[in-house]
Design a protein that fits this description.
- The protein is mainly beta.
- The protein has two domains: about 25-125, Jelly Rolls; about 130-230, Jelly Rolls, CATH 2.60.120.
- About 15% of the residues lie in helices and about 45% in strands.
- The chain is built from two helices and 19 strands.
- A hairpin with a 3-residue loop joins strand 11 (about 145-150) and strand 12 (about 155-160).
- The longest helix has 21 residues, at about 1-20.
- The termini are far apart.
Length: about 230
């Protein structure tokens, strides 16, 4: 009899815990602990996302279109507030776009054995395709950058520099966020000849204004991979 009572109490506890979890009110993305705001201006908000194996994010709300740059291989379960959970296997360096015509509430569970590490870029402004036609043509023609993703909201271009490799002096036709996919040592030079060398880490981000002119050189001993995300 006592064992039966204990089983019923245990079952009640499990039901109450599940009810409490599902009733957790959704928070704004900037209040979700796994999302750390690392850059913000009139055009974008950039979050670095860390979620260890076995961890869950809080329920949180996305209100803007966004694009992600994956920084590690990982496996995650995406649970919409009103829908079926889906499991995704993510590849380091991959780019993924998410449209948000209406607010989207979800949570993410890391179901793999590696940390989920991601850069998520919210697109804050309405797009204007016409003003970016010239920039799109310039980007397509730019040497050593491959267009990985493109639509009427955003474009993502990838550059990989081998050790000792450098770019020509070049001018960015569009503003955007440079995302370091890999760590390394990078030398950045200006047209005036000034150069600075930095140890860069995977996940570092920088806003680059249109009209910025510079050259890059990999002065480390491993390839450096950069994804430039340019809102439209």
């Amino acid at each position: 009899m006592l064992q039966r009572v204990a089983e019923i109490l245990c079952l009640c506890c499990l039901v109450l815990c599940g009810t409490t979890a599902s009733a957790q009110p959704a928070v704004a993305i900037e209040q979700e602990p796994a999302h750390r705001l690392v850059l913000q201006n009139d055009y974008v908000r950039v979050f670095e996302v860390w979620l260890p194996p076995g961890a869950d994010s809080l329920w949180h709300v996305h209100r803007h279109d966004g694009i992600s740059v994956r920084l590690a291989d990982a496996a995650v379960e995406d649970q919409p507030k009103d829908g079926q959970a889906e499991t995704f296997r993510l590849r380091r360096g991959a780019v993924a776009y998410g449209a948000t015509p209406t607010a989207r509430t979800h949570r993410v569970r890391n179901v793999g054995e590696t940390t989920f590490h991601n850069i998520y870029i919210e697109l804050l402004t309405d797009h204007d395709v016409g003003k970016n036609r010239a920039a799109a043509a310039a980007a397509a023609a730019a040497p050593a950058r491959r267009v990985d993703f493109e639509n009427d909201r955003v474009r993502a271009l990838r550059r990989i520099l081998a050790p000792g490799e450098s770019t020509a002096m070049h001018t960015h036709a569009s503003s955007g966020v440079a995302v370091l996919v890999t760590s390394g040592r990078l030398e950045i030079s200006s047209p005036e000849g000034a150069a600075r060398t930095s140890d860069v880490k995977a996940g570092a981000v920088q806003w680059i204004d249109s009209g910025t002119t510079r050259s890059l050189k990999n002065v480390g001993d491993a390839p450096i991979e950069i994804v430039d995300v340019e809102p439209r």
